[in-house]
Model the fold of this input.
Amino acid sequence: MKRYSAFAIAKEALRDHTGWDRAWRRATPKKRYDVVIVGAGGHGLATAYYLGKNFGITNVAVLEKGWLGGGNTGRNTTIIRSNYLQDPSAAIYEKSRSLYETMSQDLNYNVMFSPRGVMMLAQTEHEVRGFKRTAHANALQGVVTEFISPARVKQLVPIINIDGPRYPVLGALWQARAGTARHDAVAWGYARACSDMGMDIIQKCEVTGVKSEDGRVTGVSTTQGDIACDKLGLVVAGHSGALADMAGFRLPIESVALQALVSEPIKPCMDVVVMANTVHGYLSQSDKGEMVIGGGTDGFNSYTQRGSFHHIEETVRALIETFPMISRLKMLRQWGGIVDITGDRSPILSKTPLGGCFINCGWGTGGFKAIPGSGWAMAELMARGRSPLTDAFGLNRFREGRFIDESVAAGVAH
Ligand SMILES: Cc1cc2nc3c(=O)[nH]c(=O)nc-3n(C[C@H](O)[C@H](O)[C@H](O)COP(=O)(O)OP(=O)(O)OC[C@H]3O[C@@H](n4cnc5c(N)ncnc54)[C@H](O)[C@@H]3O)c2cc1C
Done:
């Protein structure tokens, strides 16, 4: 595949851009693959990529019922951070954050990683204590974060109202090398690299059944026919319960709608990401100038990709207290996704009761940041049967009571 470079752009400009290859091949399913991955979101594509890159396994198909990246990967607000409390979480999220640092070079695809810094505001004494505790845990885990004062918050975010009427800003947990990336580009970059390794990415191919013999997976039924495989990875976020049902096991997962919105574009006014857990909202400014706004999940289970209107109202009302200037902005558009949430707010990367079948889900409201780390770890789990990064995230933790409680780190989502 042709390398993307300044030289290639200049050369193509001289011949009306007629020489570019397709970013990924349009593939039709073969009868058999070594590995089939269900779901061409970021996690599925990253799993396929690291199976090829780290383990030389390239007879792989990624099956997608819609279009590539059309699930939560193309719908999220792109916050990347690794300031989690528990050791196993910090390990996988920090691995992921560090892979984001070099992803554009690794994939030869500009994913626009922008380590602009993420702050989580402390607006109650309880949060001050919680975030200080996380900062200490992060220091032990090798994750660089610090607890900063209200004055420093104001210096970093001049548009903030630190003396809010209900919830004044008392400080913040600050991770300077956290930030954002272009979500579509992450999916497209992985897809292009997988296709270049000879893998098949098959869109409009819904998996409708999982086939097995003697307790071991043998393949899948799809809307494009049956496909045999030795190993199967289920990486379908909000649809994980449905796929697990096809494979004959149950998951401790709930699917709920999470939504976000953007304002009309305005001049640059904020160059960091701010999360406000107490009032429950968060804010960043996209490269196009839109203010990107998100809040919490709907309070009930559903498979709609919309989300309810009162939630937008609540999120905006909450953020106006801390950012009064946004009251003068018009909303440009709003969208939603179906997120997969576990009881301890931590993901599941695991073998399953069906031999040869693996599952990667439960990233809930905050899995965009985890895409490269999750793909790296899931590939190792599928290729070798275990990965140090996934050991703590097995399905059996729910039976054995070894929860990885991240309800504080994941409290506001993202
Ligand atoms: C509004 C919103 C804001 C968010 N903000 C952030 C954020 O700021 N930071 C962050 O880290 N995370 C965020 N997230 C969470 C993040 O988007 C997800 O955790 C992550 O994208 C999940 O990726 P995935 O690859 O597992 O799932 P997806 O991208 O959803 O991919 C799963 C794919 O599986 C496909 N599929 C489902 N069933 C089948 C089937 N039967 N056959 C074939 N294919 C199937 C789907 O079509 C889909 O494309 C947000 C999510 C939402 C909705």
Remarks:
- The pocket of flavin-adenine dinucleotide is lined by residues 38-44, 63-66, 70-73, 75-79, 206-207, 235-237, 239, 243, 258-260, 294, 337, 339, 363, 365-369, 414 (CB under 6 Å).
